[in-house]
Design the sequence.
């Protein structure tokens, strides 16, 4: 079974057949989350890989500029450094 993770390009919808379902003969599951940063989508994908039985995984990253953010004590947004 194929696992599809990442951002919105990895999401399946009922109206359009995703190419990941085509290449896997319909044996695919998506845990992709639209509009989220790499740390969130990676966590969701790794969690599913840990508990599922998959032979392959595709991970979509359509914008490397998406990063995690948090607020500081003054409620200003700080960019979390990712190395």
Sequence:
């Amino acid at each position: 079974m194929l696992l599809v993770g990442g951002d919105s390009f990895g999401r399946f919808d009922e109206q359009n057949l995703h190419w990941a379902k085509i290449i896997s003969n319909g044996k695919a599951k998506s845990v992709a989350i639209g509009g989220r940063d790499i740390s969130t989508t990676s966590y969701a994908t790794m969690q599913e890989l840990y508990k599922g039985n998959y032979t392959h995984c595709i991970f979509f990253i359509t914008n490397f500029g998406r990063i995690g953010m948090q607020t500081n004590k003054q409620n200003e947004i700080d960019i979390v450094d990712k190395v």
DSSP finds two helices and five strands in the chain. The helical segments are 19-23, 38-51. The longest strand covers residues 2-6.
